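Structure first, sequence second, as always.
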């Protein structure tokens, strides 16, 4: 998405907010006083789905349970598929760097394996995916 207006047009009703921007579990540190977040150089304004991207069905279900308890919006399936597709594109685009930094492949491999199981472009019909791919993630 090139603009907030385009995002709001494609995903009406999905509010944008401050997000971490790079929230894998490795950037969440448990301490005696609670969880702390690290690595804020990608903090930005976007959908909460961006910070839940790539956490898989268990992470998505945990977020939705917490959102229901707090009276917040649950994850939007279409937005989640979109941000997961963008995240996977970022991972795949790093592959040409592996010959220069071979250890990078160890970090990319789990995401590449996951990417191979995903429908192209998250299955969003208006973004070129198949309408048949636009079902619910369940949970």
């Amino acid at each position: 998405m090139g603009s907030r207006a385009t995002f709001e047009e494609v995903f009406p009703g999905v509010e944008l907010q401050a997000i971490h921007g790079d929230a894998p579990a490795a950037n969440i540190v448990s301490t005696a006083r609670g969880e702390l977040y690290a690595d804020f150089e990608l903090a930005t304004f976007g959908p909460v789905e961006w910070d839940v991207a790539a956490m898989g069905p268990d992470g998505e279900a945990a977020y939705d349970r917490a959102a229901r308890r707090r009276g917040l919006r649950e994850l939007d399936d279409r937005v989640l598929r979109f941000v997961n597709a963008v995240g996977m594109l970022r991972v795949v685009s790093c592959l040409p760097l592996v010959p220069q930094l071979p250890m990078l492949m160890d970090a990319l491999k789990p995401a590449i394996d996951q990417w191979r199981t995903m429908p192209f472009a998250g299955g969003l019909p208006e973004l070129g995916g198949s309408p048949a791919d636009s079902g619910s993630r369940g949970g």
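Margin note: Residues 128-136 have pLDDT under 50 and may be disordered.
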